[in-house]
């Protein structure tokens, strides 16, 4: 109860700070213009005040109700998301990699609530959440790349569509060894390594189709978002890259929705194949018996 409550409150604090800092730019994007600060339902200071109360209560719940390690992770994630990640979004494409770390921390919090972070399984689980965010976000951001560009957010979706698709494919492939690692280190049984590969293969196929469409797309800007060609003309419907348009947007949507299905599918499989999950029915494995 304290873990769930504390994680929710710290997550709310990080999001509130982000919305308070970026309300002007959020108003330039369809997906964020309905946020309460943008609509002037509350002021940025209201958002910061909410974050202060929510974050304090959240970290306290984690510290006193769980343990200091989980509280430290929760507090650090507030700073990482609302501080470093939010700042980098308008400065460098590295913001996506930092944001992926933010998404990988909650599994570590859950693990640290009941076991030691020295267990390799904790890091493979966090790695799974880290890697998943790239096919998920890179596909999402590509579909609305012009909005990110106009709002001043530096994303690979518009600065370098080829890199954007390549990274999505690279981390989709990384799902295979990460899932195998969960089996190797005893978090799951070995059947998980097999059936998770089917789900991972499906996601990787979607990422491959996405990459195939954009592998020859020209780079538009540097890592900091500065245009390589100041006279570069963006079309109204795309970032102006080769291969962009309806077909590639279709591949992006397929990859995005594939990622939405993929993550719960893999996690449900991991729970089904958790080591010792079915001992009550089939008895312990021979290795465990001895």
Order of helices and strands: HHHHHHHHHHHH
Count of alpha and pi helical runs: 12
Mean pLDDT: 92
Report strand %.
Answer: under 5%
| Helix content, binned percent | over 70%
CA(first)-CA(last) distance: 36 Å
The biggest beta sheet is recorded as:
none
The gyration radius over C-alpha positions equals 21 Å
Approximate shape: flat
Ranges where pLDDT stays below 50 over 5 or more residues in a row are 238-245
What structural class results from the helix and strand content?
A: mainly alpha
- Give me the count of strands: 0
Question: What count of structural domains?
Answer: 2
Quaternary form: single chain
Structural summary, described in words:
The chain is mostly helical and 290 residues long. Helix content is 70%, strand content 0%. It has 2 domains: 1-117, UbiA prenyltransferase (Tetracycline Repressor, domain 2), CATH 1.10.357; 119-277. Helix 5 runs antiparallel to helix 8 (161-184). The longest helix is centred in the C-terminal third of the chain and has 27 residues, at 246-272. The radius of gyration is 21 Å and the shape is flat. Residues 238-245 have low confidence and may be disordered.
